[in-house]
Amino acid sequence: MRNAYLHQLHAVHGDLVDLVRLVHGALDRSTVALLEGDLAIAEAVIDADRAVDLLRERIEERSIELLSLQNPVAADLRMLVASLQMVGELERMGDLAVHVAKIARMRAPDPTLPTEAVPLFARMAAICQHMVARLEDVLVDVFENPTPDIARELESVDDEMDRLRGDTFRILLADSWQRDVEPAVDVALLGRYYERIADHAVSVARRIVFLTTGEQPVRG
Amino acid sequence: MRNAYLHQLHAVHGDLVDLVRLVHGALDRSTVALLEGDLAIAEAVIDADRAVDLLRERIEERSIELLSLQNPVAADLRMLVASLQMVGELERMGDLAVHVAKIARMRAPDPTLPTEAVPLFARMAAICQHMVARLEDVLVDVFENPTPDIARELESVDDEMDRLRGDTFRILLADSWQRDVEPAVDVALLGRYYERIADHAVSVARRIVFLTTGEQPVRG
């Protein structure tokens, strides 16, 4: 009985790590689709989202089952509560990668972004990818090597993201912007999507701190 | 002991209802701020968001405490799991109302929206307000009068929302759009914000169905 319980708890943790990896992959590929106008890669991101949704459902079901049948306490309880809270954030990060891919698909094989916006979005995407890679590292190892500073670490990376989002508006509203409305709408929405991916990464990091320490980190 | 537990469970339910009411108020006021270019009302929405955040934190803390100390089962457990899942969605709805208010504040006392987009946004806002009002009704009464159809009901309202979001792009990309980039960016982002408010309302409705029936509703 106890062994079956530990096995299931372990499975939830493994599924969470897999979910972060799926999201990481979606983010990598949607960024390639966007920056290189690659239709096939955009389609691959969109198709792969079903796996993210299914994994989220499985984690939720298992977590609720363990909560209801096993009366977990202390670290086990926190693991299940945190997983219920994290899966929603992770699924949304996957959805946002899909939104990026859908914009890329609409414009491919032409590049979606005006030339002057490319370095900005390459940087925004790199920050998001770094954040998700950190979540992956920390989550894999969360019991053996807890990292209570992960929320503060990602919050400080997120500050750069907020500045970059401001830069997207500066590009859009500059006198030098001589383009149509369509690329402006793309840039505005893409800026929003990457900003949200980073916000969700910070929220997941906060859940990991709760899981590790039992404390809700103070908002930075 | 048992009485104290029931009292706390009751308090979580009461706080959830209050949270929905706060979000409803934020949505009503941000829409007035947007449609009437009312700076004071926009400021009021932005200031009131702190109360939403605090209430969310309190509900989370209480729910986790009850889960850890009381080993709740069946309907009580579902109530706490659903509340953990719903508060994040409700807080985001409040944040999105703040985003609407911030755009209104930036343009006030001028109207934010080009004339041709006003009826569309009035309708999008009305749908969101209707959805939140339904959540409020159903949640107040969730134990006495369960409403297992609420998810399907809001999903069908959400279909209209998706069509209206499409209409925002049609307005933006029409040949008749002779405006600057700035109002185009506003319209694109505002369309996104209202669409997301409606999406979150559907998610909350799905959590209410789980709370009521113990089943995760099939996605419509």
**Whole-number total of structural domains of chain A:** 1
How does the major sheet of chain A shape up? Answer: none
Portion in strands of chain A = under 5%
Q: What general outline of chain A do the C-alpha atoms trace?
A: elongated
State the end-to-end CA separation of chain A. Answer: 42 Å
Total number of helical segments of chain A?
Answer: 6
Can you identify the CATH superfamily of chain A?
Phosphate transport system protein phou homolog 2, domain 2
Order of helices and strands of chain A: HHHHHH
Describe this structure in words.
The structure is a homodimer of 220-residue chains. Chain A has one domain (2-213): Up-down Bundle (Methane Monooxygenase Hydroxylase, Chain G, domain 1), CATH 1.20.58. The first copy, chain A, has 6 helices and no strands. Chain A has helices at 2-36, 39-70, 74-107, 118-140, 150-173, 181-213. The model of chain A has no long low-confidence stretch (mean pLDDT 94).
Which terms summarize this structure?
homodimer, mainly alpha
How would you briefly describe this protein structure?
Two copies of one chain form a homodimer. Chain A is mainly α.
Outline the fold blueprint.
2 copies of one chain form a homodimer.
Chain A: H1 2-36, H2 39-70, H3 74-107, H4 118-140, H5 150-173, H6 181-213
Helix pairs in contact in A: 1-2, 1-3, 1-4, 2-3, 3-6, 4-5, 4-6, 5-6
